[in-house]
Structure prediction request, 227 residues.
Amino acid sequence: GNSVTQMEGPVTLSEEAFLTINCTYTATGYPSLFWYVQYPGEGLQLLLKATKADDKGSNKGFEATYRKETTSFHLEKGSVQVSDSAVYFCALFDSGNTGKLIFGQGTTLQVKP
Amino acid sequence: DAGVIQSPRHEVTEMGQEVTLRCKPISGHDYLFWYRQTMMRGLELLIYFNNNVPIDDSGMPEDRFSAKMPNASFSTLKIQPSEPRDSAVYFCASTSGDIRNTIYFGEGSWLTVV
Prediction:
C-alpha cells in the first residue's frame, strides 16, 4: 500500500546550518505531497505542499521539490533558527484509497544557538 | 477566525472509565478527521467524516472506540472502557471542499489512562 518514509531523528543542528530532512514515498498514481510541522504542545500545521511532479513548495524559508523519478520530497532550509525546532511530518494524499492523508513517522529537529 | 477547537486539552482517567473527547471544526468545513498520535505508532487516522457522515472508520482500533458527528459543528470520540494503552494525544482536524486541501489541526487532547 501507499506509505511515507522519513529519515530518523533527532536531527541536531547549530543555528544557521543547512537543513535536509529526507522523505520518500510509495504510491500508485500521482499523489499530492505535504510537509507539516508540529511545535511543542501544539497541533500540526501545514508548512508547504506540492501537487504534481517537479512542483516546488516553499514557505518560511523551507523548500521541497516533488521528484517523481526518485519518489522523494526532501525538506530543505538554507539557514535554520532556534525557532525552527519542532517535529516535521512528510505526508501524501492517498487519492486512491478513500482519500486518506498518510503521514510519515515524523523527524524531530533540534536547533542549538 | 477560530481554529479547530478541542476539549479537554488534558485528561487523566482511571482504567475502565469512559472518556469523551470533543471537537468543533472550523466553520464551513465539511470534512472532519480524528487522529491519534503515540511515540510507538506515530500519527494514525482513526476516522473521518464528510458532511457529518462517517466515510472511513477502518483506523478505529476496536469496538471500545466510537465517534459521532451529530451536526456540522460538533463531533465526539468516545472510549469505553478506557485502557492504559489508549494513552495518547488525540487530534481533531478539518478541511473544506476537496479533501486534498490543507487540513487544519486542533491543539490536541492529551489523554492519560492510569
